[in-house]
Amino acid sequence: MEKKSSVKVTRKSGGNPAHIAYLDGWRGMAIVLVLVAHFLGTGHVIDAGRFGVDIFFVLSGMLISGILFVENTSLFTFYLRRISRIIPAFYLFTIIIFIVSRCLALGDGFGFRGLASTLIFLRTYYPIDEHIWHAGYPIGHLWSLNVEEHCYVILSLFAALSMTSRTKLGVGLCLIGLIFIGTNLFYIHNPSIAPIEFQIRTETAGAYVLLSAGYFLLRDRLRKFVRPWMPLAAFFAAAVLYSPHLPKWTIAWTPCLLAFAVNHLPETRPLVRDFLSWAPLRLLGIWSFSIYLWQEPFYEFRQHFFTPAFALLIAVLAGISSFYLFERPMRNGLNRRFAKAAEWKREFYPHRRGGL
To answer: In the chain, fewer beta carbons within 10 Å around the N or the C end?
Structure first.
């Protein structure tokens, strides 16, 4: 049972799952780390940017696991929600960057091949000669969306198997996550045969999403062994491993620590959850997707602003504007339309769960 706290838990309209305040704060903490790393610089102490992205990953894995395997949400509904949550803002950003890069001849010009692979979440694999981090235009951060979407496909395939045992599902997902960790270690120790920038490919970075998703299905069996200090200790232990002064292989084990930390937030001290529920941090979490998308151009061209801090301010304001003017209205409008589509599906296929 969750310990008493002043944390607010609200319920979204339409019967959606409970909305937990401190998880918004977890997202807010993640975007703060990304922004600090990009605009203020922390590379000599900690790779805060990658730390922030990985914090996003483990939360995503935990939440998607709950949606697919605990709430038993149909794949039809699941993908409609993912589309409304991600696609409009992502496509708007990508197309605007494509147009601007073509007009200004940024980098290699962001060719149509690169645009197509970006829009279908394959940019970390294709085209090989236009790597997402080395093209010269501000889409490098979209690698994380590639990883998430690929992991959603893996998780939905597990859901389609309709396995009755959550334990078997959890063990299977954790095993795949450990295989991904092993792949990362293999690449680290064999750089001559490792792909370029392998650390952002799904077969390595996907460990965060899948381990967290699998552990979520097993955590109830382990809760009695968890003490309030353990999740916080795991979080700070992971943070230490993002130091550039440690051997590269040490960071490969951070998925285990972060998956443990996020899944056992209910077992932490109320003070920790209260901090994550702090209103400014929660708001940053709510705005985080739009901010994450739009901060990259300002980061890439920050030298054209008066100071990095000013570039940071403009980046955050651009993200907030995108959230209120486009992301939220589009998501709400699509969800209303998709609710009607889901109702139609239930009417004509009342006994069907997993299929599309």
So the answer is: N
Question: 127 preceded by cis ω (within 30°)?
Answer: yes
CA distance 24 to 246: 31
| 8 Å CB contact between 83 and 330 | no
* Nearest C-alpha neighbor of 67 from the set 267, 256, 216: 216
Q: What's the residue count for the chain? A: 356
- pLDDT tens figures, 168-220: 999 999 999 999 999 999 999 999 999 999 999 999 999 999 999 999 999 99
Element (H, E) at 78: helix 75-104
Residue type, 39: F
Q: How far is CA 351 from CA 74, 81, 340, 355, in A?
A: 11, 21, 18, 11
Under DSSP, the state recorded for 354 is S
Pairwise CA distance, residues 339 & 318, whole Å: 30
Look at residue 11 and give its three-state secondary structure: strand
Distance CA 291, CA 240 (A): 26
Report residue 165 as tokens: 């045992």
In whole angstroms, give the CA distance from residue 174 to residue 179.
9
The model's pTM is 0.90
Helices H / strands E in the chain, number of each: 13, 2
- Contact between 276 and 229 under an 8 Å Cβ cutoff? The reply is no
